[in-house]
Amino acid sequence: MSRPDVIIAGGGVIGLMTGFALARAGVRAIVVDSGMPAATDAAAGMLAPSFEGALRKAGDDLAAFGRRSLAAWPQLAALLAERTGVDCDFAKGVLSAAFDETEAAAFEAGHEGGEVLGREAVLALEPFLSPRVVAGRYSEEDGQVDPRRVRAALLRAFQQDGGRLLRERTIVEIRTVNGRMDGVTLSDGERIGAGAVIVATGARLPALVDAASGGALRPLLPEGALFPVKGEALALARPAGGPRRVVRTKGAYLCPKSDGRIVVGATEIAGDWSLTTDDARVKALRRGAVSAFAALEAAPEIARWAGLRPATQDAAPIIGPALGADGVILALGCYRNGILLAPATADAVAGLVCDGRMDPLIAAFSAARFNPLGVS
Ligand SMILES: Cc1cc2nc3c(=O)[nH]c(=O)nc-3n(C[C@H](O)[C@H](O)[C@H](O)COP(=O)(O)OP(=O)(O)OC[C@H]3O[C@@H](n4cnc5c(N)ncnc54)[C@H](O)[C@@H]3O)c2cc1C
């Protein structure tokens, strides 16, 4: 195999989006993906920075990064459709519905975007929503995609631009020599050399091994900096009388897809590495959906699943150079919003790789914030 310029560890939405950006820029990139379940395939696909408290909580930089990434999606979805023939099911419009005065009052308190609507206006948008609704907040700019289609389209576009994929191969170690990235080792012992490696492995992490100091292993990030937050979701068959667009309620969110499914999500269980679904929790999601749209009472369940959101202590991603390992770039921890954040993340990482450009917004997402001892 000819030596790539860049190895990308992980072929979820972050790895493939970054691979596509690099391949378009003429970089010889190879994505290595283990085939372990990707959070990307579990995601509902909302692009909803106006509604995601997790983005705001993590600070202004992440909120701005989310809005920038949202702005890239319409053109990106069109480009992927044109290039690959895969329709990412991009659709605009997200409504958050309040069913009591306390929830409605929260809409009036500070928020990122969208317009607060009275009951009549909400029902005009979503005529089949429960008449118990008292108010809503609507953003025409926020929207959704189908993450599995996005992943398929990105892979195709990446390969069309000369990118290569190693499927079902796991990177167990990133090798450094005197603090400089030298290549990766796969689980079958094969070694691949490259100038840089981008770590986009979701909730899981390969280790760093320093070949110059007798093969000492060290973690890429301090213990606990990255952890899984399991999310369970289900898909219902879309009935007449269901939602027309993404509808978020306190009990569940509902994402109607053009293929006839409504994706209903999602639970949050921190630290759980299992991919099992709990019947009681899935039923609670379904109850939440039915209380918003009565027509869903009889809707057959098509599937249920779980995925591992890659989360960090402060809910902000980790994007930028790894500490003490030149040539290792991290693109991790997009938590609840990796589909939304993928275009801006890929752009920031491609800028770093191609011309050393450090996007000022990603300074706040540096791995250094998890390094109280100041190791560099
Ligand atoms: C139920 C649920 C609902 C969600 N809904 C939304 C939503 O509506 N909107 C939104 O924006 N986000 C949503 N998310 C979050 C989103 O799914 C994640 O933030 C995003 O998918 C993370 O992408 P990633 O590429 O970082 O990780 P992943 O998608 O997990 O991809 C990582 C890839 O790396 C591979 N890998 C791991 N280790 C190795 C290794 N050592 N070597 C090689 N390959 C490796 C894995 O096999 C995997 O394919 C949701 C998540 C869940 C679970």
Provide the residue-averaged pLDDT.
94
Number of strands: 21
Stated plainly, the CATH topology of the largest domain is called FAD/NAD(P)-binding domain
Provide the structure class. alpha/beta
Biggest β-sheet, characterized?
Answer: 10 strands, mixed
Percent of residues in helices = 25-40%
Percent of sequence in beta strands: 25-35%
Tell me, what is the CATH class of the largest domain? Alpha Beta
What is the radius of gyration? Answer: 21 Å
Low-confidence stretches: none
| Distance separating the two termini | 33 Å
Quickly count the helices: 9
Q: Could you outline the blueprint of secondary structure elements for this entry?
A:
Blueprint: E1 6-9, H1 13-24, E2 29-32, H2 39-42, E3 46-47, H3 53-57, H4 60-84, E4 91-98, H5 101-108, E5 115-118, H6 119-125, E6 135-144, H7 147-160, E7 164-166, E8 171-177, E9 180-186, E10 191-192, E11 196-199, E12 207-210, E13 216-218, E14 226-237, E15 246-248, E16 253-256, E17 261-265, E18 269-270, H8 279-292, E19 301-312, E20 318-321, E21 328-332, H9 338-355
Flavin-adenine dinucleotide (FAD) is lined by residues 9-15, 32-36, 38-40, 42-46, 170-171, 200-202, 204, 206, 231, 233, 265-266, 307, 309-310, 334-340.
